Amino acid sequence: MGAIVRTLGVFSIVMITVTSVDSLRNLPGTALFGSSMIFFFAIAGLCFLLPSALIAAELSSAWPKTGGVYIWVREAFGKKWGFLAIWCQWIENVIWYPTILSFIAGALAYIISPSLAENKYYLMSVIIVVFWGLTFLNMAGISLSAKFSELCGLFGLVLPMAFIIFLAVYWVVGGMPMQVQFAWHDVIPNLKDPELFVSLTAIVLAFCGMEIATVHGQDVKNPQRTYPIALLISVIFIFLTMLFGALSIAVIVPQQQLSLVSGIVQAFDDYFIAYHLLWMLPVIAVCIIFGALAGVSNWIIAPNRGLSIAIKDLNIAHRLQKENKKGAPTRLLLAQAFLVTALTSIYLLMPSVNSSYWVLTAMTAQVYMVMYILMFAAIIKLRYSQSTQPRPFKIPGGNLVLWIVAIIGIVTSLFVIAIGFYPPTALSVGGLLHYELVLVSGLVIMTCAPLVIVAVRKVMKHLR
Question: Which is nearest to 213 in space by CA: 201, 227, 192?
Fold first, then answer.
């Protein structure tokens, strides 16, 4: 075999991380909570974004192998729990894809006909066509998909994000009417109202994915140095742009009129009408679409690479282990595409597009938190069980600080799982019981599946 060609540097890892985490699609879900989002952004940043970034930086510098979270949890707790961790990362993406793709469809609808954004059949058609197209793109290999992400990230995420923040600042400085207020009692919410904590689901989910680029270990130049630097840059950029981007929407779009699917385009539309720049809307909508495509492309390939390593390690699902000449797990990618196609039917089961969108968002957050709990627990175990493993980057402050950081992350993750069972009162979800039954059944099925697979494998092996 020839030498491994490492093609990804700091810039590539930053762009993969930023385009995977820092999504314009997440902004309407957080803008829905007005100026109180500032308080919750601070809480989520300190209690989730920073811990996940610090822990991912240490683990990726110590185990810079392709596989990411699967490798870390496997080293700490064994193959079964490593499989559960990478499975949760993989399956939560299957749940998440319809939401990000419906965001793309909503942006496209503003170019064609804004009313299409509320048409379930239009959304389903766009989701299926776009996802299959990106699946085939990722079969061409990580080098091509990384270049695609870099280009789309610059023009489809960084520029639109900077532009809407600029428009909002100009709006506020110009003394224009605002839909939110920034008095102290507006920013600091009434913490006795549990409804407000629902916003943490959307905000924490918006901060998920700091570990995503670590799955490409074998493709990274000097990973022990590259990962910590890239993750530090990414954390700062993501926090600031997500906060000010969401505020930019909340400033101009009334809360009761905000669409979770197309809210970002709504905000641009309102700004452009006010400043007589409406001709720019199709241009910015196209940019937004490409930015979202970059994020989807990153998530399509990364968890599949980790899952592919896991099923080979466990010697299961032999038919799904096949890779093409570019190292892409083709059969896993195709299986994922079929699952996403089937999952889009949830748009027909919920009373509205907004409620479908929120159910998928809550379910995604809950499944993903299971993976994070395992990751946060893994670093504690590995600090003791493999204390001699070289760690080019190590969370400063010794084991006490590590325990504090990891426990804060675990408690936040458990809180997000619990609060996910309470939907925002502004959304019609077809009754609380119906909503909770959908979430509970989804969470149980999604998290128990890998453990059942491993148990069945053990039984079959014993019978032989």
Answer: 227
**What are the residues whose beta carbons fall under 8 Å from the beta carbon of 462, sequence distance 6 or more?**
none
CA distances from 284 to 4, 31, 268, 291, 386 (A): 39, 19, 8, 10, 49
Buried b (16+ CB within 10 A) or exposed e, 117-153: bbebebbbebbbebbeebbebbbebbeebbebbbebb
Q: What is the pLDDT of residue 3?
A: 46
The answer to whether 180 touches 46, Cβ cutoff 8 Å, is no
Residue 94 in tokens: 């299957």
The Cα–Cα gap between 178 and 130 comes to 36
Residue 37: alpha-carbon gap to chain centroid = 18
Q: Report CA torsion sign: 140, 146, 151, 153.
A: positive
Tokens of 370: 């299971």
Specify whether the CB–CB gap between 431 and 355 falls below 8 A. no
> Model's pTM, two decimal places?
0.79
Number of Cβ within 10 Å of residue 224's Cβ equals 15
Helix intervals (H) in 22-78: 27-31, 37-44, 50-62, 69-77
| pLDDT at position 167 | 94
The CA angle 440-442-447, to the nearest 5 degrees, is 100
Tell me the domains of the chain and their CATH numbers. Answer: 10-463 (1.20.1740.10)
Q: How far is CA 56 from CA 175, 278, 373, in A?
A: 43, 42, 13
Q: List 8's β-bridge partners, or say none.
A: 220
Low-confidence ranges of the chain (pLDDT < 50): 1-5
Task: State phi, psi for 216 to the nearest 5 degrees.
Answer: -95, 30
Q: Give the three-state DSSP class for 68.
A: coil
DSSP letters along 385-429, please?
HTTTS--SS--TTHHHHHHHHHHHHHHHHHHHHHHTTS--TTS--
Q: Dump pLDDT digits (tens) for 348-378.
A: 555 555 666 677 777 878 888 999 999 999 9
| Residue pair 392/123 in contact by the 8 Å Cβ criterion | no
- Do residues 49 and 288 make contact, with C-beta atoms less than 8 angstroms apart? no
Q: At what angle do helices 10-21 and 223-252 cross, to 10 degrees?
A: 40
Largest CA distance in the chain: 76
Question: Other CB atoms closer than 10 Å to residue 173's CB: what's the count?
Answer: 8
